[in-house]
Batch of 4 targets.
Target 1
Amino acid sequence: MNFNKKSYDLENLPNWLTFLRDDVKLTSLGMGFARLPKGQGYTFIHKHENQEEIYIVLDGKGIIYLDGELIDLNPGDVVRVNPEVYRALKADDESELVCLIVGGLPVEGFPRSTKSSTLIDDGIPDWDHLPPWCEGNEKIIELNKKIRAQRESKK
């Protein structure tokens, strides 16, 4: 077979991240849906080694953190981000945020790991700096410690 197909119920995507890698057998493209509940956002910022990303807002409103700048997001917005830019998403306090995230990856050696539930292969989390909506939140700091430990144990 020279293609793969999977249908998603866009009205009822699970919260947080849905990677398409395994469902459609991606080998050189990172792709996933982000569905963030009202007022919720990523708990850490990250950048990539090589992957530029495109964030396509399908529904709702929110903001994207890009190297310290907060950019408003609305349906139909498309944002391209260089690999070295630290980024994070957050839904508006009054609206969930649904995005399609697409990133080009080198074919050689992809995927490096299929175990991560938080970042695609070349993602580099910055555990020491939180998105502004999480700063000072001890629960988030503890959550990130657990995510970091899980991620590092799977390498």
Target 2
Amino acid sequence: MKTSVIFATFSIIALSVFLFWARFNVYDHNTAITVNDDRDSYTFTAHYDRNETGRVEHFINKNISPDQMGSSENDYIDANTRLNDNTRFYIKESPGKLKIRLDKMTNGAASYYRIRKMCEGVKELLAGK
């Protein structure tokens, strides 16, 4: 009886530690980047180490200055936005994930090149860890 209580207690503690570790595991070093540039839209998607979120947000904010997206590494953003130069795009960002979509029909060439250059910079930032 005593042994089964100790075993059950140990099992519950071990399961709790594992679930906590699995939920907050930030040591995922896999980076996946997808770019789709077709006639109507430009889409950039990245999945990366959660620890890189702050660097990515800082880089994006520097490139869209004076506008700003997130101010914390734990921000979740899901918005259609318009910058001061009338560049309109969709951004979805959370720790370790980023998606940017620009509609080429509602933006000019300068806006397209600005967002594409920013996304290429994010790609280089993540590749040069």
Target 3
Amino acid sequence: MSPRNVLAVLLLAGVSFFSIGKFFQEISDFYVRRPEVDGVTQFTSRYTPVRALLPEKGVIGYMTDPAAAADELNATAELYLVQYALAPVVVVNSTDQRYIVTNFHTMVTTGSMADQGFKLVREFGNGVAVFENEKWGKR
């Protein structure tokens, strides 16, 4: 093999090793910066104490603030995450149930909820609360 061919093979091997080294460096940087907890776990963990309050089975309602509901894609995804977090209790996107779980993104006062016929059962923070529908018993 001529010296020119040897040089070409060595150059190609050097570029290949450099490329592989950069690839492994990028992978190792990713794992260093990777978050400890994923977004689904962060979201659903907000509902862990709610699950302990609810009965083992049944149907409850769900309510979010109007601004969040306007973003239909995210609102639907968040409803599914709440359903996942509270299973096997069935969560329906309706306030026509005895108990309602909330997923508020903005501040909502218990007074404004009382005006709509909902009594606070317990607030958990981060927009999560359980309300009782006072109209439910008047059926």
Target 4
Amino acid sequence: MEKTEKNKKTGAADSASGRSGKDAGKAVSSPRKSSSQTKGSTPLDYVLWTVFVLGVVGSVGLNYYFSQPETLQPVTTRLPFVIGCIVIAAVCALCTSTGRRFIRFAKASRGELRKVTWPTKDETIKSTVGVAVVAVIVAFMLWVFDVIIGFLVNLITGA
């Protein structure tokens, strides 16, 4: 068999690099990972996760504090504080490397959902009616079995 031009060039490069056999023709990957592929946490991530935990604990603590009889505040007063703590916590969590991976995952999931072929209204109604009919039939059968078994138990025990 003759090699194509591409295979000839690859073979020449492989022989120059000393590779042969199964390794020939494969690209050599660098042992270093790019910064987007690393999964390690930076010191900033630890600070952001600390702020996240403090934000969640703070929202619960503020809500508890403002709901006590001696410091009772209406919901309209304490709600902005609680929501503010939760928003700060969420922003800090999303700014970490894990949060950025979650955002990429959410965007990819949204793209996949756009590719889904959703059923039509007619198909949905037919499927729903079919499931409801089967559920009623199974429920009726279970009731019949319950009545029969109950009758047999009463007959055997004489109750």
